[in-house]
Design goal:
This protein has seven helices and ten strands. The protein is α+β, with helices and mostly antiparallel strands.
Length: 245
């Protein structure tokens, strides 16, 4: 773990530099674009229920999965991760190292209102370039003004709590996924409310104006109000919602 943090510091010194060099290109995948050094070329894969593909420079290869059922970053206790904002979208970046060849695996997960996006690479030689590629990913609706540099101190040791674990810790005392308990089923809430509304309701309720649906739910619960969770991050709430759906 100490080795990984030291190596990460070196990576981030270089990885935080913006990818504005003329030796970088824009690669258009249709639903999204990214920037990469000129030696990186697009790679095609066959997908079943999602859009998959990648890019490679002959030494390192990154692959992506974009769809409703794309995977998540999955780190064990030997990995580190950070929650980040990439062009306006909340993202989770994970890094884990191989104790034998000292090469790293890097993964990224982000989610818009409909689909999940996952990209990963293993046994990487040029991690700084990969991190810059990750930070360059943008969709037509992305806000490129919201793309802060990677910060070493934001990386934390794994493991990452799953959506199911977070739901059981924070929601299961009042909610079930498919059936009514004290509160309405989570699947029902997700069908009526978008992710931004749920995030504000759980973390900063003062920003949410009560409406007829909110009052009806509260009445059904015997005037019991939902607990606030200001410590939950947007990515943690995203994982809860993915599990609930």
């Amino acid at each position: 773990m100490k080795y990984l943090y030291c190596l990460l510091f070196v990576w981030l010194v270089f990885a935080c530099k913006p990818a504005t060099s003329p030796t970088w290109q824009t690669i258009d995948y249709g639903p999204f674009k990214l920037k990469a050094p000129l030696e990186w070329k697009r790679v095609e894969f066959k997908g079943i229920d999602s859009y998959v593909g990648g890019l490679s420079n002959g030494k390192d290869t990154l692959s992506f999965d974009y769809g409703r059922y794309s995977p998540h970053v999955d780190l064990d206790s030997s990995g580190i991760y950070q929650e980040d904002i990439i062009n306006g979208l909340p993202a989770l970046i994970g890094i884990s190292g191989d104790q034998y060849n000292k090469k790293a695996a890097v993964e990224i997960y982000l989610r818009n209102k409909q689909y999940r996006f996952f990209m990963s690479g293993f046994n990487l030689n040029d991690v700084p370039a990969v991190l810059q590629i990750f930070k360059s990913i943008y969709f037509p609706y992305s806000d490129t003004s919201m793309n802060p540099p990677l910060v070493m101190t934001k990386f934390k040791a794994g493991p990452i709590l799953t959506g199911k674990q977070l739901f059981q810790m924070n929601c299961a005392s009042c909610h079930l996924v498919m059936k009514k308990m004290i509160g309405p089923p989570m699947i029902e809430i997700c069908s009526y409310r978008d992710d931004d509304w749920i995030y504000q309701f759980l973390t900063n309720r003062a920003l949410v104006t009560p409406d007829s649906l909110t009052r009806a739910y509260r009445k059904e619960a015997g005037d019991i109000q939902c607990v606030r969770f200001p410590e939950l991050t947007r990515m943690e709430i995203n994982r809860i919602l993915v599990y609930a759906r």
